[in-house]
Amino acid sequence: MNKNLKLLYFSPTSGTKKIIKAIAESINSNYEEFDITLPQNRTNNIAFSSDDLVVIGMPTYAGRFPKLLHSYLDKITANNTLGVFIATYGNRDYEDALLEQYNIFTSKGFIGLGAATFITEHSSTNKLASGRPHAKDLKTASDFGCEIIKRVKEINSLSDLTSLTLPGNIPYVEKNIPPMPFTPETNEKCVTCGICAKHCPTSAIDFLDCRTIDISKCIKCNSCVKICPLNAKAMTSEPYKNMKNMLITNFAHNEKKPEIFLA
């Protein structure tokens, strides 16, 4: 069974993208990418067919699929399309994120061939899953890609596939996350180069004045903090610092491993 390889991912701090690419390269170096991280890339409809194999990668936010993307999902359709579902997380827990992603996309016409969770450096701090995905993670991702292509070649009919059984809760766990009425602060190192604004997944940062951030749009993904070449942006509010310290204290010392699921 031959398939056209396509990638669909949302990756504000690039960790998810690294994993997806490592998987893809071991399947087929010839692939089409749909990077929906930036707003301008979430305007067009995307239709996948039964001739496609799509590797989908999403980060985990508070144990769930990114809320930001729900309004865009109606633009994505599939028709008996083989899907591989990847949820990344920052060494705390992916909770319902992988199952939610699987349910969202299978309801759109995807058929689950495989799924996995991978650890990437936490968006809030480089002291949690520091430097991940590291070489071992990328090797695991590459090996997973080899398993996927092997499975594709074994399939004579889509009816050969069994449903994936994935960890998670139904209904999904709803969390009472307190309001976060703050945005990244900009210090005197800023030279208004605009890199942060160009890479903001919600267009929250003013292109003409990078110090101005629309709090109603900011999702605290820390893309701007991580991408600034001068370290001119940082989350400095006390509630945020407390949350970050809690994460480091509770989750920095037990390095978690990728989990693989195959149909």
SSE blueprint and pairings:
Layout: E1 4-9, H1 15-27, E2 32-35, E3 46-47, E4 52-59, E5 76-77, E6 81-89, H2 97-106, E7 110-119, H3 135-154, E8 185-186, H4 195-199, H5 223-227, E9 233-234, H6 238-251, E10 259-262
Parallel strand pairs: 1-2, 1-4, 3-5, 4-6, 6-7
Antiparallel strand pairs: 7-10, 8-9
How does this model look, in words?
- There is one protein chain.
- The chain is α/β, with parallel strands linked by helices.
- The chain is 25% helix and 19% strand.
- The protein has two domains: 4-171 and 254-262, Rossmann fold; 185-236, Alpha-Beta Plaits (2-Layer Sandwich), CATH 3.30.70.
- The strands form three sheets. It has a six-stranded mixed sheet with strand order 2-1-4-6-7-10, sandwiched between helices. A two-stranded parallel sheet has the order 3-5.
- The model has no long low-confidence stretch (mean pLDDT 96).
